[in-house]
Amino acid sequence: MRTLVIIPTYNERENIGPIVGRVRVSVPDADILIVDDDSPDGTGEIADALAATDAQIHVMHRAGKDGLGAAYRDGMRWALDVGFDRIVEMDADGSHRPEQLPSLLAALRDEDGGPGADVALGSRWVAGGDVVNWPAHRRLLSRGGSLYSRAALGIPARDVTGGYRAFTAEALRSIHFDDVESQGYCFQIDMLRRAYRAGLAVAEVPITFVEREHGASKMTGAIVAEAMLRVTGWGITGLPQRLRRHPAPVEVSGSAQRA
Prior knowledge:
Blueprint: E1 3-9, H1 16-26, E2 31-36, H2 43-52, E3 57-61, H3 68-82, E4 86-89, H4 101-106, E5 119-123, E6 130-132, H5 136-153, E7 165-168, H6 169-175, H7 184-197, E8 202-206, E9 208-210, H8 221-237, H9 239-242, E10 250-251
Parallel strand pairs: 1-2, 1-4, 2-3, 5-8, 6-9, 8-10
Antiparallel strand pairs: 4-7, 5-7
Protein name: Polyprenol monophosphomannose synthase
Organism: Leifsonia williamsii
Family: Belongs to the glycosyltransferase 2 family.
């Protein structure tokens, strides 16, 4: 099973080296694709230097800051073209702990198509999940966004907006991710909405989300507004589909995690 971890970057020079190192230790067999949006702080050059010393690190340079969704779409397209079997979304800032990646991957189907999920969500809001160093308003925004999306779209997952996820290659093909136009906060909602619409099996794996120590958050009011508008629109146009009952996501207990 070939695994690729996609890490989008924009001005993450202080974070990219440590996060890549932790991924390589946690999942030594995995490859890493850094998708850099022409970071003015030199993140792309640091990524190139990392790739020059490790054949399992790859770098994609994009012309400018075009949004998280576009970066993931380009990375996913490359992953499928190259032939990876499992594709992971991960932030560069350390908020997604690489040490929990083995648990996320373990929740996916194996290469023989045996029991397991098509999509594994790193979930902050299931038993065993947690958030560290977040102010109250960020917790409210995240939990409120998930609750509103669940209600509007009929999605049973508890963490709808989280960005730490693993997909099988077949799941990505089923989702038709190239058609996803959403960016930022809303990209994750759109991908999960499509996964349920495609009838995919979704598992929620508890994670501990840790607020970044270096750099600035990319969350903006425009990103939140896009999510609210799109989710509301999908909720209205998708009322017939909401009458169908989606299979509930499988929660993986915290005790089953590997450190």
